[in-house]
Specification:
Length: about 280
């Protein structure tokens, strides 16, 4: 019989990174949506998971510890999801995250300076009012809206903050090898997040990109994602199976910054979750 689907979402964000909901609010929403399994995958921090874990346990929600890290591949920015750790990562992994947070703050200073060069009266501490635990481009976008430079968040990104916009500044990301190694050393599985974003910009065939990723030690590909059309999803599932990569998926829910994306919008077969729980990462 064909594999049935039930509510699993392995990609979500809280306001501990660039989402709009607190960890408690995200857990409440997951319960309202009828989710059985949720992964919190905030950028460069486990604070959201740490705060949500006891709430999820009390509510009977299967909560998976995750994180989303930035790196480079073919000289383009990519994101790597790490999760299904043997246990919540310890001090060494969290130290790597602290270093990434420092790099993020340094980038925010350069971003504010670049926006001022473009004639916008924008300062890092102003964006940090919105960022709370962690400040990023969505919080600069909110500041631009507040100051009347743009009408909405989408215009802020289109005119100033997207990677192709004049206000964008590169972040000094960790190497792909280091990101994957950190995840593996913590006993986790590394998955390339929303690969279609890079595939669209690259002339390299999907099969080759996935094989190169596997060669770097990547364990999985996020085939199920709100950016992926049914055709793209089917292609990625086929190529990943042929190469021997595992598959992950989720909505990439952020709340207000991405209002078109709903928590639980992507559904996964339960057999996939079983495979991910038993996936064996390479020895270190």
């Amino acid at each position: 019989m064909a594999d049935s689907f039930y509510p699993i979402d392995l990609h979500s964000h809280t306001n501990k990174s660039d989402g709009s909901l607190s960890p408690a609010e995200l857990i409440d929403l997951a319960l309202q949506k009828g989710l059985q399994t949720l992964a919190i995958t905030d950028h460069d921090t486990l604070e959201g998971y740490d705060e949500a874990a006891p709430l999820a346990q009390a509510a009977g929600l299967d909560l998976i510890c995750g994180v989303e890290l930035s790196s480079k591949f073919h000289d383009r920015s990519i994101h790597v999801l790490g999760y299904f750790f043997r246990q919540p990562p310890g001090p060494e992994f969290r130290h790597h995250l602290d270093c990434l947070q420092t790099s993020r703050r340094e980038r925010n200073g350069r971003l504010a300076a670049r926006l001022r060069e473009l004639g916008l009266d924008v300062h890092q501490d102003e964006a940090e009012r919105f960022g709370r635990s962690q400040t990023g481009r969505p919080h600069f976008a909110r500041l631009l809206v507040e100051k009347g430079y743009v009408r909405d968040l989408r215009e802020a990104f289109d005119r100033y903050l997207d990677e192709s916009a004049p206000g964008f500044v590169e972040r000094r990301d960790a190497s792909l090898e280091n990101v994957i190694r950190w995840i593996h050393e913590a006993g986790g599985l590394a998955s390339w997040a929303h690969p279609v974003r890079m595939v669209r910009q690259s002339a390299v065939p999907v099969d080759r990109l996935f094989r190169e990723m596997a060669g770097h030690g990547m364990d999985a590909i996020e085939a199920y994602h709100t950016d992926h059309s049914p055709e793209v999803q089917a292609e990625y599932l086929t190529v990943a199976s042929r190469i021997g990569l595992a598959v992950t998926g989720g909505s990439d829910f952020h709340g207000d910054p991405k209002p078109q994306i709903q928590l639980g919008q992507v559904t996964l077969p339960p057999s996939l979750l079983t495979c991910l729980r038993t996936f064996n990462t390479p020895p270190h």
